[in-house]
């Protein structure tokens, strides 16, 4: 029987420190988007408290930007489309939760708490680590760090936009600050790391074309749902896809490819 220490025993302290540094770095960079969200939400007609509730309870940037964007375009009449679009973007977190279940471990309270922090960044940082302990540390540090930072910057953006609107009396114009492109930039940053193979590239192009074609004829928010049908069909029939080769993947490392 080998006397060599297990990887986690031998390298966990150093791996955990690297996971903490990675998590804090990602949290700092991601939290900056909260300023844009807070300002855009106020410019779209939400008050400061409504904006803060979205960040505190929804806490998934893509869904928040989608929800606010659809409401800004179509008003309350577009609320069903806004909810559908936000929910569709949030579905990916269910897949992340399945991947992270072995990292989080058993325990109802712990799993319930982890569900709120299971987002793109916390999953990516966690699964990028080599040891089980570092994966757990990376998940919690990233998730909690982004939650705190995102809500702080949301408050800064919302309060700042509200103050500017009150000061000039003409309302806050996000275009004057370049924030009107923030939502598109956030979605592009989420999508770009996935464009590594023919299939996701084809899906992205086809979905964009479908969304542009239907936009003049449907309510705001619905183009996203039409575009999603493209991904469903491609995934169902595996067009342009190839079988995944997982022979070289260690048994204790969850799938990482495609995450930002």
Automatic annotation (TrEMBL):
TM region positions: 24-46, 66-91, 137-161, 176-193, 200-218, 224-241
Superkingdom of source: Bacteria
Main location, first listed in the record: membrane
Keywords recorded for this protein, A-Z: Cell membrane, Membrane, Transmembrane, Transmembrane helix, Transport
InterPro entries in alphabetical order: Brnchd-chn_aa_trnsp_permease
Entry keyword Transmembrane: yes
One protein family per Pfam: AzlC
Location(s), subcellular: Cell membrane
Record's bilayer topology term: Multi-pass membrane protein
Family: Belongs to the AzlC family.
Official protein name in the record: AzlC family ABC transporter permease
Record lineage: Bacteria, Bacillati, Actinomycetota, Actinomycetes, Micrococcales
């Amino acid at each position: 029987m080998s006397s060599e220490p297990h990887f986690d025993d031998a390298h966990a302290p150093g791996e955990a420190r690297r996971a903490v540094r990675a998590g804090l770095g990602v949290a700092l960079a991601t939290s900056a988007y909260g300023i844009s969200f807070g300002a855009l939400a106020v410019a779209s007609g939400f008050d400061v408290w409504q904006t803060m509730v979205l960040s505190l309870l929804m806490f998934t940037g893509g869904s928040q930007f989608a929800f606010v964007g659809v409401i800004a375009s179509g008003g309350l009449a577009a609320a069903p489309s806004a909810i559908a679009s936000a929910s569709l973007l949030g579905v990916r977190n269910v897949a992340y939760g399945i991947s992270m279940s072995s990292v989080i471990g058993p325990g109802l309270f712990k799993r319930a708490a982890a569900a709120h922090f299971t987002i793109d960044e916390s999953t990516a940082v966690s699964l990028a680590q080599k040891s089980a302990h570092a994966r757990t540390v990376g998940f919690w540090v990233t998730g909690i760090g982004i939650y705190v930072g995102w809500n702080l910057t949301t408050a800064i953006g919302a309060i700042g936009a509200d103050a500017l609107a009150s000061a000039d009396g003409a309302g806050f114009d996000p275009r004057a600050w370049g924030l009107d492109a923030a939502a598109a930039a956030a979605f592009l940053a989420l999508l770009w790391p996935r464009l590594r193979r023919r299939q996701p590239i084809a899906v992205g192009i086809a979905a964009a074309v479908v969304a542009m074609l239907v936009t003049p004829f449907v309510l705001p928010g619905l183009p996203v749902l039409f575009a999603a049908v493209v991904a469903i069909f491609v995934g169902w029939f595996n067009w342009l896809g190839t079988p995944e080769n997982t022979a070289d993947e260690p048994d204790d490392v969850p799938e990482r490819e495609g995450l930002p």
